[in-house]
Design brief:
Layout: E1 5-7, H1 12-23, E2 27-32, H2 33-39, E3 50-57, E4 60-65, E5 82-87, H3 90-97, E6 105-111, E7 119-123, E8 129-134
Parallel strand pairs: 1-4, 5-8
Antiparallel strand pairs: 2-3, 3-4, 6-7, 7-8
């Protein structure tokens, strides 16, 4: 199994809140750095940031944390992870995208193609590049 792992610079809780709402899902696992530091005080100093979280989006596991040394800090397309989500209908895609559009950045506008009734790419406010398409 291949599991995408996204890293945020202290914005993991905000990203989780957005993704839970947009994809109608919940975090299944959640550990803060404080939880780790109880067992190993030298491991982390920040008790509010997320050391590990796991959620399911459209049947795919996704891991998230606040580790900033891997994060897309400058929100550059050159270092952004690209996640593709396939939707069953245009309506489902557009309803999900509503949660992203105000703070996101369009990379490729949504269009109809020979392989999809609707497809487009955007970067969310956390520097994650999303590709939404209808299958």
């Amino acid at each position: 199994m291949l599991i995408p792992h996204l890293h945020f610079c202290g914005d993991c809780k905000a990203a989780i809140a957005l993704y839970e709402k947009a994809f109608d899902t919940k975090v299944e696992e959640y550990v803060t750095f404080d939880d780790y530091s109880r067992n190993d005080p030298e491991s982390c100093a920040n008790d509010k940031q997320i050391a590990h979280a796991r959620m399911i989006i459209h049947g795919q596991a996704l891991m998230l944390n606040d580790r900033d040394d891997f994060a897309n800090k400058d929100k550059s397309l050159n270092s952004a992870p690209h996640l593709i989500v396939q939707f069953a209908s245009k309506e489902e895609l557009l309803a999900c995208y509503e949660h992203f559009k105000d703070n996101g950045r369009i990379i490729d506008p949504f269009v109809t193609t020979f392989y999809s009734a609707l497809v487009g790419n955007f970067m969310d406010e956390f520097g994650v590049l999303w590709g939404f398409m209808v299958v």
